[in-house]
Amino acid sequence: MKKLKNGLTYKNEKIYLNKYLLKKMNISKDKMRKLLILHKKRIDIFEEIRFTKDKEKLKRLGKYVDLVDIKLQKTWGFKIDFRLLSWWVRTPKCTCSIKKNSKLQNLYFLDKEEEITSLKEVKNFRDIKINCPIHGM
């Protein structure tokens, strides 16, 4: 693990924590460590996805990405909002459209009245390709 000026590198991936948010959300050093650990966990999951060919394992690891993203929201002190999970579509081997899903996420901001209370419901806010090895059938 290599320290950078505004973050660190873990397994050749850069991890940066938003300094403005750290201050605004009054994040303690302990929570900052937890945020970094969660990002490392995500990187480990991504690495495992890159190297596995087992279809069931890929789907299970894809769900873990969402769980890490939820823990990140919670550790930052944000209200848990399943529609704002963002790492799922950046998962290695995912063939779902980042562009379409970003648009869906932006549409959510126009109508915040509907509340999503589970990961099962969040699929209504995702454009998932049927043949995606992570999220598809």
Q: Which descriptors would you attach to this protein?
A:
single chain, 137 residues, three-stranded antiparallel beta sheet, globular
Radius of gyration using CA atoms only:
16 Å
Instruction: State mean pLDDT (0 to 100 scale).
Output: 82
| Helix-strand string | EEEHHHHH
Tell me the number of helical segments per DSSP (H or I, 4 or more residues long).
Answer: 5
Give the beta-strand count.
3
Could you please describe the fold and organization of this structure?
The chain has 137 residues and is mainly alpha-helical. It has one domain. The protein has 5 helices and 3 strands; from the N terminus they run E-E-E-H-H-H-H-H. It has helices spanning 19-24, 29-51, 55-76, 98-110, 119-122, and strands at 2-3, 7-10, 13-16. Strands 1-2-3 form a 3-stranded antiparallel β-sheet, with helices on one face. The longest helix is centred in the N-terminal third of the chain and has 23 residues, at 29-51.
Short précis:
By secondary structure, the protein is mostly helical. Helix content is 50%, strand content 7%.
Secondary structure layout plus pairing:
Elements: E1 2-3, E2 7-10, E3 13-16, H1 19-24, H2 29-51, H3 55-76, H4 98-110, H5 119-122
Antiparallel strand pairs: 1-2, 2-3
Helix pairs in contact: 2-3
